[in-house]
Amino acid sequence: MKKFGLIGKDLSESFSKIMHTYIYKKYNISSMYLNIEIDNTSFSKVDKIIREKKIIGSNITFPYKNEIIKYCDIVNTKAEVIGAVNCIKVIKNKIYGFNTDYYGFLMTLKSNFVETKKKDIYVIGAGGSAYAIIYSLITLGCKNISVINRSTNRLKRIKRHFQNKLKYKIKTLNSIEKKIKCDSIIINCTSYGTKDLEGISPIDRNVFDSNHVVVDINYMPQKTKFLNDAENAGATAINGLDMLIYQALISIDIWMDKNVSNTIDAYKVKKILINEYAKQN
To answer: Does the model's pTM come out above 0.90?
Structure first.
């Protein structure tokens, strides 16, 4: 039986194992999916851990999507341009790095009928997920992307990355102190609203407008304060469940080295995960 997994910190609320286990059973895929928790002090041994556990492929989650790159023997061209890896595959004892988050986000926009052309877009956060989201938006032809982060160093790093890789100039802000332009898209790529930060939003609720489309790439809780504030202002609010599902389907294709995702009903997978919300409330 093939072994796959999720590498990250504090994975107790993750839906990944539930989702993959359902998919493998439903579609007769002879595989198992493990949660592999690694703390910061042990992450330098991640390549050894992967090989010792005989993991063939793994998803990478917070906070290691940038850091994992240096432990990959080969990084896929797209992941190298993005600057973050959220999926690895072991081939002949070599670790290959990929990025499937960008596809998961593209499918989130598509499945929720979000139009991005001529929109001002604000990305909150400058971690590994933000890199994939920005790459997705650039491929869609978005012209006005601003990144908001309190860390000036992180802003400089992400701005320099996309300038060097794609000749794309990102606008950077340390905060939002007034209403964002109507008809804009606002995307939360931080962990605000989750776990120890539950009940906290990365921006003030007065920023939201009824014409905004607001996306939180987090899916737990089902509605963060960020999304609740947006909904209360009349905005369209979308959580990260679709992104989780679609990035996972492409990960399975990479691991199996064939197009398995075309046979999987993403809608049924989503229904299973929505039922998980009910169990946890």
So the answer is: yes
Return the active site residues. Answer: 65
Give the pLDDT score at 281.
63
Under-70 pLDDT residues of the chain: 177-179, 281
DSSP string, the chain: -EEEEEEES--TT-SHHHHHHHHHHHTT--EEEEEEE--GGGGGGHHHHHHHTT-SEEEE-TT-TTGGGGG-SEE-HHHHHHT---EEEEETTEEEEE--HHHHHHHHHHHTT---TT-EEEEE--SHHHHHHHHHHHHTT--EEEEE-S-HHHHHHHHHHHHHHH----EEES---SPPPTT-EEEE-S-TTSGGGTT--SS-GGG--TT-EEEES--SSSS-HHHHHHHHTT-EEE-SHHHHHHHHHHHHHHHHTS--GGGS-HHHHHHHHHHHHHHH-
